[in-house]
Write a structure and sequence with these properties.
The complex is a heterodimer. Chain A is of the alpha/beta class. Among the domains of chain A are: about 45-295, NagB/RpiA/CoA transferase-like (Rossmann fold); about 410-470, no CATH class. Chain A has helices at about 5-15, 20-45, 45-65, 65-80, 90-100, 115-120, 120-125, 135-145, 160-170, 180-195, 225-230, 250-260, 295-300, 315-320, 325-330, 340-350, 350-355, 355-360, 365-370, 380-390, 395-410, 415-430, 445, 460-470, and strands at about 80-85, 105-110, 130-135, 200-205, 205-210, 215-220, 235-240, 245, 270-275, 285-295. In chain A, helix 2 runs antiparallel to helix 12 (about 250-260) and helix 16 (about 340-350) packs parallel to helix 20. Chain A starts with a helix and ends with a helix. The model of chain A has no long low-confidence stretch (mean pLDDT about 95). Chain B is α/β, with parallel strands linked by helices. Chain B has two domains: about 15-135, Rossmann fold, CATH 3.40.50; about 140-255, Rossmann fold (3-Layer(aba) Sandwich), CATH 3.40.50. In chain B, about 50% of the residues lie in helices and about 10% in strands. Chain B contains 14 helices and eight strands. In chain B, the strands form two sheets. A four-stranded parallel beta sheet of chain B has the order 2-1-3-4, with helices on both faces. A four-stranded parallel beta sheet of chain B has the order 6-5-7-8, with helices on both faces. In chain B, strand 7 (about 220-225), helix 13 (about 225-240) and strand 8 (about 245) form a beta-alpha-beta unit. Classes of the chains: A alpha/beta, B alpha/beta. Chains A and B meet through helix 1, helix 15, helix 19, helix 20 and helix 21 of A and helix 2, helix 3, helix 4, helix 5 and helix 9 of B.
Chain lengths: ~475, ~260
């Protein structure tokens, strides 16, 4: 069965794989990242040990989610904060929307959050007449272009500064050149006005620290810090899997996240907040809310085989390492989370039948698994997803039939040899007639994109028998 | 070599088993018989007695990787039956070795054959791994006076964790100049059924690989897997590139004339 999502993926993938300008932009960006990432890794005394430690911290958090989430909730409430448990995207959206309505919010500033993308929060607020400002520079850019983030960490990596300058000229008006500092200053002017007038700040959370009852937010621009300190209301929307047991766990999680994400030793701004402004404090919100989103995560938790997908800290390293991502780009996936992690996670969040194709759009090279800082077996999970899709019976009838026939043929050495000989003879005849690459080429799916190999007259087993007998 | 033999004797370990069973992947059998023959030549040259179990067909990887585990499992069982008495099994493919060693135990989980599969996995070796780690041979007496670059096939590198073994063998080939290409460990884009299901992505990845090969200015690109090489060769030909592909076994089989 080919779903609309699968057809759309195929169409966009074909378009992007042939787009050499796109390939060049992404390659340059990722070469930059690779160099920084390797420098970052070298700063660790033992990178592999850090990965293992991060894996174990997340293992503990995810495998004792019940306990740590309750501990987190208790401490936040003690400090006067509110915690809302949202079973799905709609519940989360409605909570934030009614909060905004109750407080007469007209303007919202947001720092970068993939969970709010997942639940399509901004369109819901905009429908209520609320102005929503993305304050992360990359997010601000894609928001102006009216498109979703291209990459979970670097949302505008597909754009050149020339394109961004043109966009700013069109939408903001006050920019002269395409000099990066000038572009940043232009965005900052637009955003400062929003920061000072917004009634509500919305952020995500990189970690929920259970023993301290704090949320940890990491940014390079300090925009989250403004979102949590200037507006009257702060809402953090986050997935339940973000909880970690102890504050001290950040000692390894922060540098590992920074290195995997951008190659930095540590991200520029790391903020810990956990409640509304207390008497005597100069800044901070009057109300502090945390929305804990499930939206399919509990079911993933119940899947023992793929549970470790919940360890993900959204660093984006697997996207950068993935040769498929680099060629098709982030928008081709049609999902909130792109790349290998998205291909594994999305079938759980949005349905296997509609998103199984993503698991097939991989050569299973394993580059993702080799860079994952929390050691998720990403490429093996792609295999598991394929198996689950076959078991669910959603694969095309022709494919199922083909593998059944192939199995029958391969279970007898005589049959295998006979079919092989016939197929080779057929191919040799076709290629002798010059049919290679034409519509009559029996290997058309192969030769559409590359030359056919020379087809040998005899198989290995025939040659072996000739030389060594039947032994 | 002498020292190694001495150590084996001191620790009372049997020396290298001289008898090996060939595991010839189905596509090598059908499309690259020369690779199998070249491997046999090298194995015999270092003193192995070579056996080819005639009932072997395919390890089941195409079905397994496409999600058809129920169709792959009978082939794993067939493989176990064919190779049950083999002490050491050698295969000119890191990918098919991975299937047997790393994935059979998972495929046969819950089956009474799982333990046997796990044990058999420890007796299957990729060709370069067998030469360097089991037979303890780095110089097989080959001569190939060309500029060669080595492509790390994904399964060989990331599942079997073999990075140095093939390079070590290449460094001992007379006249061979080994040059590294940029990103030698990046996937070439073959990926089994991926190469036809998503042919355009596969070809774009192949293009990237071809550019890196061209940067190295090598005459030949070699690897441990005929499947990657068949794809790379197809891409290189379409690009009318100068470089050609050759399997590691075929380089090692070349002798000075």
């Amino acid at each position: 069965m080919t779903t609309p999502a699968a057809q759309e993926f195929l169409r966009r993938a074909a378009e992007k794989s042939a787009d050499l300008t796109h390939r060049q932009i992404i390659r340059r960006g990722i070469e930059h990242y690779d160099a920084a990432f390797h420098r970052g890794q070298a700063r660790f005394l033992n990178w592999e040990a850090a990965r293992q430690q991060c894996h174990e911290i997340k293992w503990e958090g995810v495998n004792h989610l019940d306990r740590y989430l309750l501990e987190f909730e208790k401490r936040v409430k003690e400090r006067g904060g509110h915690v809302f448990w949202a079973a799905d995207a709609e519940e989360a959206r409605n909570y934030v929307a009614s909060l905004a309505a109750r407080h007469g919010v007209r303007r919202v500033v947001k720092s970068k959050s993939m969970v709010t993308e997942e639940i399509h929060l901004s369109p819901a607020l905009e429908k209520m007449g609320i102005e929503v400002f993305e304050t992360d520079l990359g997010e601000f850019i894609v928001q102006l272009r009216n498109e979703p983030p291209y990459h979970i960490v670097t949302p505008a990596m597909h754009l050149t500064r020339v394109q961004i300058a043109a966009l700013f000229r069109e939408k903001l008006g006050d920019v002269a050149g395409d000099d990066p500092p000038e572009l940043v200053a232009t965005a900052r002017r637009a955003l400062r006005r929003a920061f000072f007038s917004a009634e509500m700040g919305i952020t995500g959370a990189n970690f929920l620290v259970a023993d301290a009852g704090l949320i940890a937010i990491t940014t390079n621009e300090g925009n989250a810090r403004l979102c949590v300190s200037l507006p009257r209301i702060h809402v953090a929307v986050t997935g339940i899997e973000k909880v970690i047991p102890r504050l001290q766990d950040l000692a390894v999680l922060w540098p590992t996240l920074a290195t995997s994400g951008t190659g930095q030793a540590i991200t520029t701004y790391n903020t810990l907040v956990g409640g509304p402004r207390r008497p005597g404090e100069p800044d901070g919100p009057e109300e502090f809310h945390v929305v804990l989103l499930d939206n399919g995560r509990s079911e993933l938790l119940a899947d023992v085989e793929q549970r470790d997908v919940l360890y993900c800290i959204r660093c984006g390293a697997c996207l950068n390492a993935c040769p498929v991502f680099r060629n098709v780009g982030g928008h081709t996936y049609g999902t909130t989370y792109q790349g290998p992690i998205g291909s594994v996670l999305t079938p759980h969040l949005r349905g296997l039948a509609e998103f199984e194709h993503l698991s097939y759009a991989s050569s299973l090279c394993g580059a993702c698994t080799s860079v994952c800082p929390v050691k998720i077996e990403l490429h093996h999970h792609l295999l598991h997803t394929r198996r689950n899709a076959v078991r669910a019976g959603t694969r095309p009838f022709g494919e199922r039939l083909a593998f059944r026939a192939w199995r029958w043929a391969m279970l007898g050495a005589g049959r295998f040899e006979l079919f092989g000989r016939v197929a080779r003879a057929l191919l040799r005849a076709a290629y002798a007639l010059g049919l290679e690459g034409s519509v009559l080429d029996p290997m058309r799916p192969w030769t559409r994109n590359r030359a056919a190999p020379p087809i040998p007259r005899a198989s290995f087993r025939e040659l072996w028998r000739k030389a060594n007998g039947r032994n | 070599m002498v020292l190694a033999r001495l150590l084996l004797w001191v620790y009372n370990v049997e020396p290298m088993p001289p008898r090996v069973a060939l595991f010839i992947p189905c596509f090598v059998d059908q499309l690259g018989p020369q690779v199998g023959q070249d491997m046999v030549r090298v194995l015999r040259r270092i003193g192995c007695e070579v056996d080819f179990p005639q009932e072997q067909t395919c390890c089941g990887q195409p079905a397994f990787n496409t999600g058809y585990w129920a169709d792959a499992a009978p082939l794993a069982e067939h493989f176990l039956k064919v190779f049950t008495s083999a002490e050491v099994i050698v295969c000119p493919s890191g990918s098919c070795t991975t299937m047997v060693r790393n994935f059979y135990p998972e495929l046969l989980r819950g089956s009474p054959l799982r333990a046997e599969a796990a044990a058999l996995g420890q007796r299957v070796f990729e060709f370069s791994e067998f030469l360097v780690r089991v037979a303890n041979v780095k110089d097989v007496g080959a001569c190939f006076p060309h500029r060669v670059t080595y492509h790390d096939s994904c399964h060989t590198l990331r599942e079997l964790r073999l990075r140095e073994e093939p390079r070590e063998l290449l460094r001992h080939v007379r006249g061979l100049e080994l040059v590294e290409m940029p990103c030698s460990d990046e996937c070439c884009g073959f990926g089994g059924t991926f190469s036809t299901k998503y042919g355009m992505i596969s070809a774009a990845m192949g293009d990237g690989k071809a550019e890196n090969i061209e940067t190295s200015q090598a005459e030949f690109v070699t690897a441990t897997d005929s499947s990657c090489l068949m794809h790379i060769e197809g891409i290189l030909r379409r690009r009318k590139a100068r470089a050609r592909t050759i399997h590691l076994a075929s380089i090692l089989a070349q002798e000075a004339s």
